[in-house]
Amino acid sequence: MNEAKSETPLFNDFTPVNAQTWEERIRKDLREASYHSLLWQTDEGITVKPFYTRQDLPENLVSRPDDFPFVRTTKARDNQWDNVQTIYVRRESQPSIDKAATALERGATGIHFILKEPVDFDFGYLFSKPFMRGASISFTFPVSPETYLEQYLKSAKENNYDLTLLRGFIQFEPIDDEPFHLPAYACIPPMLDLVKDAPNLYPIAISGQQFSNRGSLLTQEIALVLSAAVSVIENCEKHNIAPEKVISRMQFHVTAGTNYFFEIAKLRALRLLWSAIVSSYGLHGEIAGRLRIHVSTSRWFQTVFDPHVNLLRGTTQAMSAVLGGCDSLSIAPFDQLYKTPDDFSERISRNISVILKEEAYLDKAIDPAAGSYYLESLTKEIAEKAWECFQLLESKGGFKKSLESEFIAAEIKKITEQKFKALTNREHILVGTNKYPNANEKVDFDPERLMQSKYYDTNRAAYPFEIMRLASEMHFQKRKKKARALIAVIGTKLNEHLHASFAKEFFECANFDTHVYHFENVEDAAATLQNNDSKIIVLSGSEEQYQHFTAEFTGNLKGKPQKPVLILAATPQHMETEMTAKGFDQYIFQGCDIGTLVDCVQKKVLLEDEPLD
């Protein structure tokens, strides 16, 4: 039977529908509502429409995988990826190698050893493990990556290991207090020389995860990776190393976040822009196909509380990475934020990849996003936004100067502040953290010890909410009852109820014993609250009532040593100075500075020597 031409309609009885017709029908169905109410804008500045048509497809779509510019990957037969388990090495390496061997026996196809300290790694012991042969073995070194690499290759030769069979990457992540780091420029030339006989070992791993794990936009992550890669190429050119030699040995390490379709399009856009950069050096398109992309699930979205939700996040993040065409994937254990992962959590994270292959068959289809009006359009828009960001970095002198001048840190800080505000307003939701908390959750770790641990990651979306919850848990474990917050609503106006509702959800998410009381007037509220022993009191009412309330209640408490924390559920605007002078400690409203609020509550209540009653 002859194949039908692509132009032949599948359903001849239906008239083709264009975008204008769809929009007209939507406007009609919406009646009084505006069509623009269906549009939403992402943090990246991309406007997402309610529907997409053929008219949204970019020009010059790549028809087949393995075609330049490799938007659809270089995979020609299937969509295989390495299931990489991350193993942290902090002291002796042999127990970590034993764990790696077990992981490879149980479904992993690769290992990523991350040395958190300058450990003497026993490479000989590594090569003595039969399961290591043929697996993808990668390393992140904190110092002297070229020295470690030399020892690794020397040990391989001593164990009669064929260097052409070595697979993996080498990444540099120094131990210092700096939020972000530069590539190991001085180490790259000798490392390139060391791996000349190991064609599948990538000694230049460009890290984008250091930015995305701290809250950068995905377009920023792409731009920063590309800018860092260009800076490495330019530095190597100064040492008379041809760009082709550098480009052919590069790997990118990025993360997968929770914005599912955007993360699929991110990897496609990254390959598209990388191909453009490679072409700018006058190199053949095929060399861009040497690029390998390693993806790890983002720490930015992980949470300490309700941690099993991290399993769901990890699954959707893994799916987006796989459908986007990653070459290797690491899925973090759901409990890694608050303890050393155990066998169960490591097995579950490892098996997510196994299920996506063995039961969901995602390894069978290459780039299933191809041809989707939405995803093809999204790939183009993400690429354009990322390219604008890349050009901005280049105008600032490139990656190295932008990092040293703290321009990059300032740009990411600006974004994270916006994200924290969106989380406070619940425009962005972290399930179990800023909405839908598990009130009956019982923690199996020491909250005080976690807060004091140097390994507790404070650079995550959930951190401001978690720090309140951890302090509340400390109180609960010491006093066997929850810290108490009282919310007093005076009057019946809508705004008063909205502010009170927001405050109630905030303190419930922090695991406070939260109560809402309604009063008809200020006198009733003041009379009741005078004898109340709650340590946190939130007042919601009109501006006139605030003034009256201070005379009836707040003024009498100003000098008392056991004064509760008084919080005004309102936007301060012009009355901030006056209300502070009259005894209010903080404000709470949608869009408030949650960091300041958390600090206030912690300092005055949760961390006082005298515990809450």
UniProtKB/TrEMBL annotation:
Residue ranges constituting the Methylmalonyl-CoA mutase alpha/beta chain catalytic domain according to the UniProt record: 134-449
Gene3D superfamilies the UniProt entry points to: Cobalamin-binding domain, Methylmalonyl-CoA mutase
Keyword Oxidoreductase part of the UniProt annotation: no
TM helices/strands, residue ranges: none
Keyword flag Isomerase: yes
Cofactor(s) this protein requires: adenosylcob(III)alamin
Keywords: Cobalamin, Cobalt, Isomerase
Pfam families on file: MM_CoA_mutase
PANTHER family, alphabetized: METHYLMALONYL-COA MUTASE, LARGE SUBUNIT, METHYLMALONYL-COA MUTASE, MITOCHONDRIAL-RELATED
Family per similarity comment: Belongs to the methylmalonyl-CoA mutase family.
Protein name, as recorded: Methylmalonyl-CoA mutase
Species name: Adhaeribacter terrigena
